[in-house]
Task: structure prediction
Amino acid sequence: MNKRFFSATAAIFIVWFIGRCLIHHWLLYDEYAKLSNFFRPDADIEQLVPFSIFAHLALAGAFTWIYVKGLSTDGTVSSLGQGIRYGVVIACSSSRPTR
Result:
């Protein structure tokens, strides 16, 4: 792990966390308010923010590490092939059976 790894992890974390905040706290807030009886009170959610930050940071590091481990340094796999392989690994590791 080097400076580039940590820079990539930080970039993923920032974009992901800001995007999440924009979508859930700005675009969908009114829709969530309509269903407020199904969700925790805002005071309870605010107590969980540090755990959310840690989870996003850990996942950003994991996604960066998975990408770095899948890089082909000898040039035998195209960038498109590496991207597809990375997408398949992330999809398999993040999906779960529902039944």
In short: The chain has one domain: 3-94. The chain is about 75% helix and 0% strand. The chain has a mean pLDDT of 84.
